Amino acid sequence: MPISQARVPTAEASRYLKQLCRHWSHKFPVEATEAAGRVPFGDDRVCTFEAEADALLMKVATPDPAALTRLENVVSDHLLRFAFRENLGEITWSRAA
Known about the structure:
Number of domains: 1
Largest sheet: 6 strands, antiparallel
Order of helices and strands: EHEEEEHE
Oligomer: single chain
Radius of gyration: 12 Å
CATH architecture: 2-Layer Sandwich
């Protein structure tokens, strides 16, 4: 399944991870701790988060390349909305196998 990942430098990674997971927990069976989170957007679409001391690592996976791009955009848009007090810059995704 195609995977895309992004590393977003921030000292608030754990806080953003929890916000994102809490936001989607109303619609999906989210799993979250201080350091990691998983949002299953569907049977074949998932997003995972890992909070490091200086960055938030995000991975999205889905078999459809067009859906992968949409998922990247949805996750990025939500993160930027939650991080409005901090300039995270442009979020760059890289595709992995």
